[in-house]
Amino acid sequence: MSEPTVPPAQDERLVQRSFLTRLLNRPELGAVAGTFVVWGLFALVAGGRGFLSLRGAATYLEVGAELGILAVAVSLLMIGGEFDLSIGSIIGVAGMTITVLSVYFHWPLWLAIFMALLLALAIGYFNGWMVMRTKLPSFIITLATLFIFRGATIGVTRLLTGRTQIGGLAKTTGYASAKAIFSSDLVIGNAKFAVSIFWWLLLVVIGAYLLRQTQFGNWIFGVGGSQVAARQVGVPVRKVKIMLFMMTAAAAWLLATIQAVTFTGSDTLRGTGAEFEAIIAAVIGGNLLTGGYGSVIGAAFGALIFGIVKQGIVFAGVDADWFQVFMGFMLLIAVLINNIIRQKAAETRR
Amino acid sequence: MSTTERIPLLELRHGSKYFGNIVALKDINISIHAGEVMCLLGDNGAGKSTLIKIFAGVHHQSEGQLSVEGKEVRFSSPRDALDCGIATVYQDLAMIPLMSISRNFFLGSEPCCGRWPLKRFDHQFANHKVREELSKMGIDIRDPAQPVGTLSGGERQSVAIARAVYFGAKVLILDEPTAALGVKQAGTVLRYIAQARARGLGVIFITHNPHHAYPVGDRFTVLKRGRQLGTWAKAELEREEMISMMSGAAELEQLSAELERVTTNSV
Asked: What does the pLDDT read at residue A341?
């Protein structure tokens, strides 16, 4: 065998791969393009009715942010090869824990918020532990915990207070500081941008960095791509997956806290359906349902599309009932586009 | 070759493995030394997979002692085996197709730079190293960032072998690396096996193709239905003899297939 030589950094077989092809191979491309299309569409239809104003931007960004906070964690979990259908019920549990502890048991609000976080993390741990322990699909496990925790929230709340909606959070100790952190506004021009938007952006930056630039991120791709292969090269699969479930639970807690503080109370049904919206955002963002492939940035754009459509329909004067129809179609189109893109990405360039 | 005086890199003595009441392996004695290729031969269900899973830390033997460089060890996970320098490359699970070559290469042992909380995966180093290591093995890749799914089967196996060598494997266990490959690609993989041996590694090469085993093997162990038929040095064994031993009677094959079904169910 001849002496191997180090090939030149620029391989001659690489030149054909243009900038455009590289761009096409990014998982988030579909969502970014979709955002422009949807935004342009509503700019045309509802531009004159306030959609293009700063206030318009503030409303769709806020809706996008609330879903986006969940979508960051959900996309990481999906790339790790699992689902969490229970996040909607964790929002209910966390919100109710905060409200019942602070209003009904007169705990300081911050302590109640902290307790809710611990509870959410415990639920996340339980989800992950059950999935790893039973080896059942996470879809089934978290579908079960969705029902268990939603039901338990309603049951326990009614048992303790006799009601399913509780207000009065504004009178609890520590409300002012909690409001500053979770529910204040940044005024730009005549528009008020909710602080949740900044929470969202912060989480997107952290999530994207975690996924693409850290060891843990490589493990996420690994356990999602092939759990067995990842375990065999020494990735602590169980730990990674449990951590991811705890992260989705923590994201649900953050959203629950923001909502509880904003609405100065909680409803046992809060967060119903959020799990599916977050999955839609993640899938539109180019995350593969089977795991091992995807992007946090893509999921952020998926959530943004969600916000633009939900608010754009209102601005356009269309009955908001049509929102779900629109999102359903978006989901279908996104999956089809993603499939084509992925086939191109995996195409052998031999 | 004087293998008797040297301390083997890896040795299993009187090793047995039971799955419930099923005897997967019974009284196996096998050792592997630096700079040799031990071929593990046998039909389906002979116990080859179970044996290498004991070496790889996936299973624990029911009886017998496992030792690394003369010291008795007990692996509780694949990580333990890796830490002892025993790397296993599985036939179909060597690589994750959707991940890039360099992400795959360093999966589980990522190079990091910077300090917490900004400690990060050093992509530049990873890409550079992958290219360098693969070219040392004579593998020329186009782009370390391309998904492994774009590589051919032989290239994937070769990258997996290069990875094991890079991470300081002393013993390399290859589970049927040539089974799904064409003639030319299998030849490529055999060449990397010879290269790994030349670098002083001990290689356990599992195959049921005698034409792949004979050219590259130094010693041959034949398993049949969980028992060791014997171990021979190349000089003691004719190619034809080996082939006839491996391709036993038709009814044995049938029985083995049945036994395999039973053992895989209980794994």
From this structure: 66
Q: Do B98 and A347 touch (CB under 8 A)?
A: no
| B180 compared with A157, residue with greater pLDDT | A157
| The total number of structural domains that make up chain B | 2
Sort out which chain B residues have CB atoms less than 8 A from A13's CB and list them: 142
* Beta-sheet strands, E only, within B33-122: 37-42, 63-68, 71-72, 86-89, 112-113, 120-121
Which stretch of DSSP H or E encloses residue B55?
helix B48-55
Angle at CA of residue A105, ends A101 and A107, nearest 5°: 65
Is A225 touching B (CB cutoff 8 A)? yes
Domain residues for the domain of B260 are 10-95+160-266
Contact A303, A67 (CB under 8 A): yes
- For residue B104, the chain A residue with the least C-alpha distance is A222
The whole-number pLDDT of residue B265 equals 65
273-302 in A: which are within 8 Å (CB) of B?
A: 288, 292-293
Same domain, B166 and B253: yes
In chain A the beta strands, taken as DSSP E runs, fall at 165-167, 185-188, 191-194, 265-267
- Chain B residue at shortest CA distance from A1: B138
Residue A4 contacts B where some CB pair is shorter than 8 Å: yes
Is the per-residue pLDDT at A4 higher than 70? no
Q: Which of B109, B123, B149 sits opposite A346 (nearest CB)?
A: B149
* ipTM of the prediction: 0.81
Instruction: Specify whether B235 is located in the same domain as B127.
Output: no
A12 interfaces chain B, CB cutoff of 8 Å: no
| Statement: residue A64 has pLDDT above 90 | yes
Distance between CA atoms of residues A68 and A330, nearest Å: 17
Average pLDDT over residues A128-152: 96
